[in-house]
What does this fold into?
Amino acid sequence: MKAFLKNYRQSPRKVRLVADLIKGKRVSEAFTQLKNLPKRAALPIEKLLASAVANAKVSGIVTEDLYVANVTVNEGIVMKRSMPRARGSASRINKRTSHIMLTLIEKNAEKKVKKAEKAEKAPTEKKVVAKKSKVVKKVEVKA
It folds into this structure.
């Protein structure tokens, strides 16, 4: 599941510090980390994570198996402002914005799907095994 936050009014460099903390963690761990973090970007990323979890629930995915697969922070638009300086000149102020993309993945479900696919592909064959006492047994062998 994915969720996007566009034109968040904080510089991408500062937002990446928060985003890197939750990469690869369980959703519940990520929520607790974001609640206790004293950074300004923690609240918007927490709301974004809640939005991605809601998107997963609508799709029918169990929320206990969700992990934060990736959090990408890209540069958004830059608002240019000017500040008056000495002798009638001006210097530019860049007010930066961020685009944040959060991706969730279901880890346990992948293992379950792979096991189910292997079970479907492996047909059972019956072989006849003879012993020295001339007793014949049928043994099922899974390939």
In short: The domain at 1-82+92-108 is CATH 3.90.470.10 (Ribosomal Protein L22; Chain A). The chain has a mean pLDDT of 87. DSSP finds four helices and five strands in the chain. Residues 70 and 103 are 5 Å apart (CA to CA).
